Amino acid sequence: MTEIKTFADDVTLARAVAEDWLELLRENAGPHLAALSGGRIASTFFAAVAALPRRFGPFLGKIHFFWADERCVSPDDNESNFRLADENLFRPLRIAPERIHRIRGELPPEIAATEASHEVRRIAQQDAGGIPVFDLIFLGIGPDGHTASLMPNARPAVLQSREPYVHVDNSPKPPPNRITMTYPVLAAAREVWVMVTGEGKTEAFRESLRPDGKTPFARVLQSRAETRIYSDIGAP
Length: 236
Description:
Elements: E1 2-6, H1 10-27, E2 32-36, H2 40-50, H3 53-56, E3 63-67, E4 69-71, H4 81-93, H5 109-123, E5 136-140, H6 156-160, E6 165-168, E7 178-181, H7 183-188, E8 192-196, H8 202-209, H9 216-223, E9 227-231
Parallel strand pairs: 1-9, 2-3, 2-5, 5-8, 8-9
Antiparallel strand pairs: 4-7, 6-7
């Protein structure tokens, strides 16, 4: 089942996601593994979370922060998904460094992917197939229907990988080298919440929701029993 929540604008959407995350954290005891994404909505969403320090405060000690994908750049680069989260979320909320498990995009990509896979396996429980299980993965969608850094032109090695993370070397959107979560990890997560915002995404969104959709985002939806979508671009 795909649940779609619609909003008038990205700020209202981001606040709703933050509130829903709070509710999820309240309802579930124990460690909480969350994977963050980048993109235009990310800074708005991080700001919405950071605006609620007292309400999120009791739960920050149980959250482990990972990433759905990262660009192969240094952590202080403007393209870094880690930098976006660090400036807008981690520093404002004073997140303890040991709760932050960044992808080391400054390393050679294959090494970065291997290290990221080892790190998530160190922390996460695994399902019967050996796939790490996240409590919540935040995703976005691009105008071409990509999500995380799972692109329409993905090589077979990316499509078939059962490692938690894999190197992408041909992203059509620069930079070409990235590290991304794989499809099995997205399928295994307890919750996947997708923020669909911005212009130029209506057609990809519509195609992804079709039962026989062909976009990377469609493949994620088809692999899961439930996915939650927050959208400000209107009914697809």
